[in-house]
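Q: Predict the bound structure with phosphoenolpyruvate.
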Amino acid sequence: MRKPVIAGNWKMYKSVAESVETALALKPLVANANHCEVVIAPVFTSLKTVADRLEGSNVKVAGQDCSTEMEYGAHTGEVTASQLRDVGCAFVIIGHSERRQFYCETDTFVSRKAQAALIAGLKVIMCVGETLEQREEGNAEAVVSGQLDGGLSGLTASDVARIIIAYEPVWAIGTGRTATPEQAQEMHAFIRRVFAQRQGEEAANGLRILYGGSVKPDNIAGLMKQPDIDGALVGGASLKADSFAEIVNYNRG
Ligand code: PEP
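A: Predicted complex:
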């Protein structure tokens, strides 16, 4: 049985005070959400304060990125995975399409970051997904399987067990245009098949695959009904405690 994960990516939003305010408003609203893991990813500067204020609750904290480097060193602007652990993170998001698009992040970087994060004891949410152009050219599956192979290369079977994949079609991120549950299911099933070919059936059956791209309170239930959708990575709708809580507490009836 795969426990769903509902993760909120706050991107480059909120001051420390605003982050704490949202996190504390969220905490009681999702306190009974035992059906899933609840994760929020505030901006780096808010992580420590938010993690401290959420200690002992069921809301876990994630970094939005980490360095490929594992050791301290002269890498201006970078943050190691162990430094994320040190401030209370349990998860890290890696390979988000905004990092791939705007910061030239390659699959090699994604795989090195994943290795660094796993060694530091973090769970990894690794993002994959095609652009609209790639989908329209009929290349969506080739792009996604290439990202999976690149991102997972060099990882051992036990590493892979701590990886969560987030399928985020780039054309659905922040656009209000969500993939239909059927479109998302189709790609999630494909990802699981690719994973089974590379890592075996057992690993593939245990793999949690999140959907991301304009997830909102009114579309989460339909997405979660699909057999291969094991949660969501939520951007815009995670910035407000009440809308994110509605997504976490989606109708499971
Ligand atoms: C995201 O940033 O990962 C995301 C899915 O954003 P949104 O929900 O706003 O589309």
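A: The radius of gyration is 17 Å.
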